[in-house]
Amino acid sequence: MTHAISIDAVSKRFASLQALDRISFTVEHGEFFALLGPNGAGKTTLISAMAGLSRADSGRIRIMGLDTVTETRDARMKLGVVPQELVFDPFFSVRETLTFQSGYFGIRRNDAWVDELLHKLGLTDKANVNMRALSGGMKRRVMVAQALVHRPPVIVLDEPTAGVDVELRQSLWTFVKELNAAGHTIVLTTHYLEEAEALCSRIAMMKKGRLIALENKDTLLSRSAAREVSLQLSGELPASLRPLYLRQQDGRHILALPDISQLERVLGELRLAAVEVRELTVHETGLEQVFVKLMHGGQA
Amino acid sequence: MYSFVTLLKKEILRFWKVGFQTVMAPVLTALLYQMIFSHVLSQHVEAYPGVSYTAFLIPGLAMMSMAQNAFANSSSSLIQSKITGSIVFLLLPPLSAPAFFGAYLLASIVRGLAVGAGVLLVTAGFGLPLPAQPLWLLAFAVLGCGVLGALGIMAGIWADKFDQLAAFQNFLIMPLTFLSGVFYSINSLPPLWRGVSHLNPVFYMIDGFRYGFFGQADVSPWLSLAVVGGCFVALSAWLMRLIVSGYKLRH
Questions:
Q1: Is A146 an interface residue toward B (CB < 8 Å)?
Q2: Nearest beta carbon to residue B10 from set A74, A81, A100
Q3: ipTM attached to this prediction
Q4: Minimal Cα distance from B18: which residue of A?
Q5: With 0-12 CB in 10 A as exposed, 13-18 as middle and 19+ as buried, what is B199?
Q6: How many structural domains is chain B composed of?
Q7: Is B35 inside a domain boundary?
Q8: Cβ-defined contact of B86 to A85 (cutoff 8 Å)
Q9: What percent helix, strand, coil does chain B show, rounded to 5?
Q10: Euclidean distance between the first and final Cα of chain B, in Å?
Q11: Domain assignments of chain A as residue spans, ordered by start
């Protein structure tokens, strides 16, 4: 059984910078996978290596079982990449851009699919407009269409919503979700963590060229100590609860709740110490907190 | 194969859409050269027996314009794509190195020939005869544009900014094309400069191209063909290796 993407011990160095340090993971068919990390973590370098835009110093990458170095041609036919930078050829219209892009993949007479892409991405009325005349969000949509002209089973979107307004972002995600539902494997990098949280089933986090987390989204979120309870008490916090103490905020004690079942223990200890709870709030925290914690060196 | 055809079509359309700048402008420049030089030097001795200076000048100007525009086509297209980043759309598909090289090269040749045809058309009235050796003429036109188109690909891939490309163009291509016997027969030069001219491949392009019109030239057309053809083959082979290696294109 092949994987949609298989990355095996991939390393890449630029002068003194170790951009990728023995990265290994797989993405399964039909997954909606997030690749997260701060700027400079190596996400784009990894995507470039997958797409053949850069060459890994060592390790192997396979797309749908095809080696990106020895079976370059076939591997590239299976992969659609939406690059991070907003780039376009100013000489041509939207339709010309997509027709040429189809031709580079060796596809003639792709008009029906190009029309469908234009329609799905809300570009039909811009088909004959020069690329220069489009807004940033519209250009981004054309880039998505360019990545899909050859109907690749694996689609990589490198920060596709950077600089895109809310409405466009929503319609883009609707379209990408449709592609995923139709069986396409999606890999997404984004700075909007709520997008990854809402869309992706599995999440990889990178930092300084290394993979520091790779989990199902739910596992990652539940493994984190990111759930907190805020308590306003009638007296002092009992010593037995000190290990959970995080900080004091607006006269309230904030405690970490590694697990929601710990709440019972907290309340039990308070009862035992005869301290009355005047106010209690549990904060369900999300991916952002997990992300921040991991990036600052802590274990989730 | 279809990817090659697509890239070729795109490259031709790219310069054609800005035809005023890429074809008409160099034709007009050549016409101005022709008018000024033929006015100033019409009393100049015949370059070859029976060939007036005014007629002699035309093939040289045409070849010089072809060479400069073939170079400009591939180099400017590549550097623009690199600087704007849109070259990524050529690097993501499975476009082979021969298709990539061939399409840029052929588009350069097409632009060179279009400019050359334009120059000959507007300057023919200054006394250009019908070609004595049309096949030689065509061979040197195509090969000359090919060499400069290939050099343009090299410069476009090598240069990281417009400034570097301008340096390549102004300090290498311009002197090579101007000091190649466009405006004079190198037989009129002192021995030292005649010797130096023989080291310039553009001289052989122009000399061979002239042979196509007048049936006479400074050196044998076979020698010119060997030099220009040899340059073309060597440059192409080297460039193919460079593109396959991903030099400056894939990091």
A1: yes
A2: A100
A3: 0.90
A4: A91
A5: exposed
A6: 1
A7: yes
A8: no
A9: 80, 0, 20
A10: 26
A11: 5-222, 227-284
Residues of B in contact with A74 (CB under 8 A): 94
Residue A226 pLDDT: 61
Q: Domain span at residue B149?
A: 7-245
CA-to-CA distance for A36 and A300, rounded, in angstroms? Answer: 15
Nearest to A227, CA basis, from A271, A278, A261, A251: A261
Residue of A85, A102, A150 with shortest CB distance to B85? A85
Q: Which pLDDT band, with edges at 50, 70 and 90, does A258 fall under?
A: confident
**Under 8 Å between Cβ of B120 and B34:** no
Q: Which residue in chain B has the smallest CA separation from A13? A: B251
Mean per-residue pLDDT over chain A, rounded: 89
The answer to whether position B251 is within a domain reads no
How far does the CA of residue B120 sit from the closest CA of chain A (Å)? 29
User: How far is Cα B250 from Cα A54, in angstroms, rounded to an integer?
Assistant: 5
Q: Please classify residue B219 by burial: count the beta carbons closer than 10 Å to its beta carbon, then call 0-12 exposed, 13-18 middle and 19+ buried.
A: middle
pLDDT tens column, A118-129: 999 989 999 999
Q: Which residues contact B58 (CB under 8 A, 6 or more apart)?
A: B34, B119, B120, B123, B124, B126, B127, B128, B213
A76 touches chain B (CB under 8 A): yes
Q: Which residues contact A83 (CB under 8 A, 6 or more apart)?
A: A143, A158, B85, B88
Contact A233, A276 (CB under 8 A): yes
CB B174, CB B168: distance < 8 Å: no
Nearest Cα residue to B209 out of B105, B63, B99, B76: B63
A120 lies within 8 A of chain B by CB: no
Q: Round to whole Å and give the CA distance between A3 and A9.
A: 15
In a domain, B1, yes or no: no
Helices B221-245 and B201-214 meet at what angle, rounded to 10? 130
Of A128, A134, A205, A215, the residue nearest A168 (C-alpha): A134
Query: Can you tell me the distance from the alpha carbon of A140 to that of B213, in angstroms, rounded to the nearest whole number?
Result: 53
Q: How far apart are CA A20 and CA A41, in angstroms?
A: 8
Asked whether residue B250 is assigned to any structural domain, the reply reads: no
Q: Answer yes or no: CATH 3.40.190.10 is held by domain A5-222.
A: no
Q: How far is B112 from chain A (nearest CA, A)?
A: 20
Q: Which of B14, B80, B88 to mutate to test the interface with A (most CBs of A within 10 A)?
A: B88
